[in-house]
Specification:
BirA Bifunctional Protein, domain 2; 416 residues; alpha+beta; 15 helices; Rossmann fold; 2 domains; five-stranded mixed beta sheet; binds adenosine-5'-triphosphate; 16 strands; binds magnesium ion; eight-stranded mixed beta sheet
């Protein structure tokens, strides 16, 4: 038997209700971004594979095992984007924007990672994100975190999340810290989980955010970044903390927060909720100066965040779906034929109008009512001939007789 095409594992459809929630998250985020001077940009969902291979680092989980990469008909090695920041850095160089800094960008769109699908973890998911390019230091970090916080406030989810904050130090601090971690975990190899054992050689810092019970026991005595921070790195972090206090943004210092990508240094942060089960990070980011060298061969500075739209949609109170103002219930073929004409004139007057319910008049009224319209216009041949329309207010059942001209004015005042 022939099998019908199915939805691909880890991908999802957004039916209207879900789409509406999803879009309302983006709208709220973009509104806050605009208030803070960030402009929307869009980059392609596909890039040269080497952008991500180099940019995110070979030791990252994403490049190691989660990429959707393929060769095009023309022989180009391309990948569906797993995240947005590398593309933004690429665009920065493609358009020669070095003279235009500081730049404040906002993006939103689908990302692709071949992960094991589970609650809150999809293979095609959506992110919005903000990037501040060409400004650096604690003030830039603060600006980005404050924007993230303000978006969560606007979405009404701030009280369900906790800001976790850490510093990874400069590249030099990080290297010294990495060596210390390597020495410590190497001495405890026998107790490490399989995943962490693999990370020991590639990226020992990632062991710090391991969720495995046996690793966690080792973490209590593991070296801490603070011991390896240069004076300037420490000052930068302290200034950020002071800035957060001034803005009334609460945070917890999380020594084990590292972020999954290699390009981060200095500030790293995540807003985490316990309301969604295991996949609790809704918005995370940090400073990624090093990415620019890797992607474009020239230095620049960047700090930003990315947020998971599906996870935020699951956290918000679902916004009400937009409803039509008015439903037409034509009776008889002559009236049926006139319904599109009447609908067109009402729509042009700004009144959202639907028609085309099927069945007996009573059944159609019921369908209209269930769809949530505020008014029904019921008409047959006689009403057409006499230019009188019966309008029913669905909230109280009240009926009014009106001419075509009066009908528009009536509905317009009622729905505003
Ligand atoms: P996680 O630790 O949950 O895997 P991450 O560190 O890989 O997250 P980022 O790359 O920082 O995540 O992406 C930013 C946000 O995008 C995450 O905090 C999360 O909300 C969302 N996100 C990441 N991967 C997925 C996925 N596979 N499905 C749904 N949302 C995701
Ligand atoms: Mg991940």
């Amino acid at each position: 038997m022939k099998e019908n095409p199915r939805l691909i594992r880890g991908m999802h459809d957004l039916l209207p209700e879900a789409y509406h929630g999803h879009q309302s998250v983006i709208d709220a985020a973009l509104q806050q971004a605009h208030l803070a001077g960030f402009q929307r940009i869009d980059t392609p969902i596909m890039e040269e594979s080497r952008l991500f291979d180099r940019g995110l680092g070979a030791s990252s989980d994403i490049v190691g095992k989660e990429m959707y990469s393929f060769t095009t008909r023309g022989g180009e090695e391309v990948s569906l984007r797993p995240e947005g920041t590398a593309s933004v850095a690429r665009a920065f160089f493609s358009h020669g924007l070095a003279q235009s800094v500081p730049l404040r960008y906002f993006y939103a769109g689908p990302m692709f990672r071949y992960e094991r699908p589970q609650k809150g973890r999809l293979r095609q998911f959506h992110q919005f994100g903000a990037e501040l390019i060409g400004a650096s230091g604690s003030l830039a970090d603060l600006e980005i975190i404050a924007l993230g916080q303000e978006i969560l406030n606007t979405l009404g989810v701030a009280d369900k999340t906790v800001l976790h904050l850490n510093t990874l130090g400069s590249t030099t601090d990080r290297a010294a810290f990495r060596d210390a971690l390597l020495a410590y975990f190497s001495a405890h190899k026998a107790s490490l989980s399989e995943d962490s054992l693999r990370r020991l050689d590639t990226n020992p810092m990632r062991i710090l955010d391991s969720k495995a019970e046996q690793d966690r026991a080792l973490l209590a005595d593991a070296p801490m970044i603070d011991e390896y921070l240069a004076e300037a790195s420490r000052r930068r972090f302290d200034q950020l903390c002071t800035g957060l206090q001034a803005l009334g943004i609460a945070y917890v210092r999380d020594h084990h927060l590292v972020r999954g990508l290699d390009y981060y240094e200095h500030t790293a942060f995540e807003f985490i909720t316990d309301a969604l089960g295991a996949q609790g990070t809704v918005l995370g980011g940090g400073c990624y100066d090093r990415l620019f060298e890797i992607v474009g061969g020239k230095p620049a500075t960047g700090v930003g965040f990315a947020a998971g739209i599906e996870r935020l949609s699951a956290l918000i109170t679902a916004p009400e779906m937009p409803k039509a103002d008015c439903a037409l219930i034509p009776i008889g073929s002559e009236a049926e034929a006139f319904a599109p004409v009447l609908a067109q004139s009402l729509r042009r007057a700004g009144i959202a109008t639907v028609y085309g319910f099927s069945g007996k008049v009573k059944a159609r009224m019921k369908q209209a009512d269930q769809s949530g319209v505020a008014f029904c216009v019921i008409f047959g041949t006689e009403e057409l001939a006499q230019d009188v329309w019966k309008v029913k207010d669905m909230a109280n059942g009240e009926e009014t007789l009106l001419s075509t001209e009066a009908l528009q004015a009536f509905l317009n005042t009622k729905i505003r």
